[in-house]
Amino acid sequence: LKDGASAIYGSDAIAGVVNVITRTNMNGTEANVYTATTGKGDGTNYDLSFVTGHSSNRGNITFSGGYQDQKPIMAGDRDFSKGTYTFDYACTAAKAAMGDCAPATLSGSSSSPTGRINTMPNGGPPLNIAGCETKYCTADGGGGFRNFVNAIGNNLGDNYNFQPLNYLLTPSNRVNLFSNGHYDITKNTHVFYEGQFNSRKSTQQLAEEPVQLALFGTPISADSIYNPFGQDVVDYNRRLVEFGPRTFNQEINTSRLVFGLNGNVDEDIVPMLKNWKWEGSYNYGRNDATQANHGDLILSHLANALGPSFRDADGPHCGTSADNAIGGCVPLDLLHTGSPNITKAAIDYLTFTGTQSGFNEQHTALITASGKLMDLPNHGDISLAVGGDYRFERGGSQPDPLTATGDTTGNASAPTLGSYNTLEGFGELSVVPIAGGETLKYVEINAAGRAYDYNTFGSGATGKISGLVRTLGGVAVRGTYGTAFRAPNILELFQGQADGFPLVTDPCDTLPPGKKSPVTLSPTVSAQCMNPSTKGGNVPPNSTFGTSQQRAKLGGNPQLQPEKGAVGTAGVVYEPARGLDFTLDYWHVDITDAITNLPVQTILSQCYQAANNAFCNQIERDPNTHVITHINDLTQNVGGVTTSGLDFSAAYQYRNPFGTFRHALEGTYLFQYNVDTGTKDPTTMKENVLHGRGFYDLGVFPDLKFNIFTTWIHPSGVGAGFNFRFIDSYKECDNDNCNDATNARRDVSKYATGDVFVTYSLKSSQGTTSITAGMNNVVNVQPPIIYNGAALNSDESAYDFLGRQVYIRLGQLF
């Protein structure tokens, strides 16, 4: 159901719902074995499953289970993700040919294994280091120091490529169990249940911890025995390769139980409700999760290990003397590459295993009734469905104490705990004034409404009205208009603040990563950087930071209000012949008070390029070094989202001596996808609206996407098919801000992939045996490069990251 679903199904159904119907008449057993692997032999997946059931005249019971094991793929094993890049939008083909610039430069991380020292830190005294004549220097491997070599073109220089240690596809295994059934208590009353359990274990892995002392506010003390400079080192980045990768291990268990009664109204008892159906049920669901993190450092221990230290007959110690030595602390030698002083004892003192646990829980009580109210002339009728439910939801998470207090070099995270409840009533009325007519074949008018009362933000109502008219020549027209809402969920309301590190550069940086010479900021950006009246300003001219990631503060907001929207559709269906149909549907969705986190790059662009001080005040800087300490990006209600487009399809299904065929085309043409940020341009006082269609500013929103597929089944059991998927190109721009017409831009490539399969089924005295073999992404198309994308240089929400994949599935129905 693609429209009007919020009035019928409630919150979160703005764009429609999908109804999953499980089998209730299973007799026998079916088992399936599936395996798939990529053309590179990685990412192998094994999936075993079965379903068995028994039905009788009084009821049924069905039970199923499955096990899946997914092997990993490393980011370094795919060309598009084996490194990270910055793109110079000002680098023309002529300049590149002269060697003056490179369009794409391997960026990596300035937190390299040999370290990067800022000899002219903002807000601190300069460092005079022998062998280093530039702003940044690094260890030379022989106990001395030299100039730090920036990445140029395809040469990383002294930067570090962290991608080979990162997962592109994370490993996991999953066990799932499911059962449902019903029993006829009487002719008109039935008891039913559903039960489900799912257990997943998975692992994420990131490269070793990058220590960034300016960000942590933790200098290497002038009195450290490993500091040869005689003064504090306040701005130093170092990749702790000696510590090994960071790992995040999850175990998540999900349980769900539904039981209730349903049936038909006995016409002998209530004749006017003949054939009415009713249901009463209780639904319980719970999700429990734990995550163990390893590889981050204890921030206070790092400060101790980099602070004053001394040696005595027993070795190195933290502190200024034996009288105030810090117990257990081992001084850390960060400045010298391959230092033998980074011992297991030092690593054990600095690292910890943090365990975070969390849960989500839901209780729902539901009653419904539906049936025909009366017959109408012209073979029509009036039908009604009514119901009500009560829902209670709660959730929470508890990080380990170090993560909760922020005493870690990793992402700090505060505890989460909250709950809400809602009482809702709904109804749907269907009027069919004409059915089986000669000119008007069928006419239906449908109206639905839902009233709700949340203890968190109050009450409201949504409604829908729709119509369908079938007429001569296989033509039908249809349309809907409805209001919608989406209530903020537990995390959006109550999630404790947590850190994120998106890949974005500081707009005030005059020597950002990937640039071999200083850049000149535009007058607007320069003025905003120096603006002393905002939190994101007061940056001295010609400041350099060299950072490719910024810290963002994410979290919930108890003051959130629900999204509200209006959804309208209008369409036509044409069925000129049996099995042949065409559809064309226009849709328009207008959401106000949209619940979202704006992209961090959008906040930076709106602050510095659009000169919007409301966004600048979301940016916090260190008063001494002027580095961005964090960007506040809490969940909020923004002005709204407006989107519209055209869905189209064509399908033809037919049968001939060669078998049954189905050909289909399905696609969407996007007219607009706009986000009103809820702020105004300070010059024109017009709303700041970001346009997403055809730009990457808000994600992948090309003007055209479509699928073409064909399936064929022969009476002998042989079959085959293919699927072709297409995503049109769009623009990405400097600063990830195509809404500024002055920004240079590039085309993100069109994307098209094809899948094929063959299948065979054989019936015998033992049942039906089937085998299917296929290949996805046959020609091994790589996702298009998006330099403003995530750390994988593309966008996993729209494109296939695995490459060519072959699979085989064996099934047996007994």
Strand content: over 45%
List the total number of helices. 10
Overall structural class, as computed from helix and strand content, comes to: mainly beta
Distance between the termini: 34 Å
DSSP strand tally: 40
User: Helicity level, as a percent range?
Assistant: under 10%
- Rg estimate, integer Å: 31 Å
* Biggest sheet record: 22 strands, antiparallel, barrel
Mean pLDDT across the residues is 90
Structural commentary:
Strand 31 and strand 32 (659-680) form a beta hairpin. The strands form seven sheets. This protein has a 22-stranded antiparallel barrel. The protein has a five-stranded antiparallel sheet with strand order 9-8-7-14-13. A four-stranded mixed sheet has the order 25-26-30-29, covered by helices on one side. 31% of the residues are buried. The radius of gyration is 31 Å and the shape is globular. It has ten helices and 40 strands. By secondary structure, it is mainly beta. The model has no long low-confidence stretch (mean pLDDT 90).
